[in-house]
Amino acid sequence: MPGLETQYEAIYADVRGTYLANSLAEISASVISSAQGRPGQSISLGSLLKAVISLLEVSSLTWTVLSSS
Amino acid sequence: MPARQEDVFVNTSLSPLSQFSRTVKALSTYVRSSPSQNIFLTLSILEDVAVAEDIIAQSTLPRETIESIKRESTGLEREAKGVGTVGVADVMEDIKRRGQSVLTLPSDAGIIDLTVDVPILPPRLSYFSLFLVRDLTFHR
């Protein structure tokens, strides 16, 4: 069913894009705050790198699981 | 990865990768603003970038995405090291110059501080202390 697949892709893309952007925006802000020595923040560049890779990988796997179900 | 899935993946990766790129650039600008003051931050960035290479190598992400992350990471590493700009190398050179300009040792048995611009070592970065004692101080 091509129409359904397209709709599914659009929803998936929207959810995935928003989720990734929001998650990384928060982590990025914390990394910069931590670099500037603001109290209460201790998130390094390494945390951001791991977050970027992990989030992108998890979202990729989600597609595979949902598509096969 | 099937073509349509890859299209969706690539399109939805643009925003997060752009966010990552902006953060790396902001960090780079901040480090360059005062290399001596930010020396500990720069050292931690260099260590994070080295660890990231292993994580990136094990990743299952598409090649284009990996290349994009690698480009940003390598760029920041070059900036931190001071390749083509001001970085750790310049801070070290500055310390060497100060050391070379010392002609006589202090008569009060004190320490000649060659790192006046470098802040006191933060506790959470104390694992750098061995290297820093070796590289950043000059005891008589």
Q: Strand-and-helix sequence of chain B, N→C?
A: HHHHH
Q: How many β-strands of chain B, per DSSP? A: 0
Give the radius of gyration of chain B.
20 Å
Number of helices of chain A: 2
Briefly summarize what is shown:
The complex is a heterodimer of chains A (69) and B (140). Chain A is an all-alpha fold.
Write the layout of secondary structure elements.
The complex is a heterodimer of chains A (69) and B (140).
Chain A: H1 2-35, H2 45-68
Helix pairs in contact in A: 1-2
Chain B: H1 3-33, H2 39-58, H3 63-81, H4 88-100, H5 129-136
Characterise the protein shown here.
- Chain A is mainly alpha-helical and 69 residues long.
- Chain A has one domain.
- Chain A has helices at 2-35, 45-68.
- In chain A, α1 packs antiparallel against α2 (45-68).
- The longest helix of chain A is centred in the N-terminal third of the chain and has 34 residues, at 2-35.
- With 140 residues, chain B is an all-alpha fold.
- Chain B has 2 domains: 3-81; 88-136, no CATH class.
- In chain B, 65% of the residues lie in helices and 0% in strands.
- Chain B is built from 5 helices and no strands.
- Chain B has helices spanning 3-33, 39-58, 63-81, 88-100, 129-136.
- Chain B is elongated, with a radius of gyration of 20 Å.
- At the A-B interface, α1 and α2 of A face α1, α2 and α3 of B.
List keywords for this structure.
heterodimer, A: 69 residues, mainly alpha, 2 helices, 0% strand, elongated, B: 140 residues, 5 helices, 65% helix
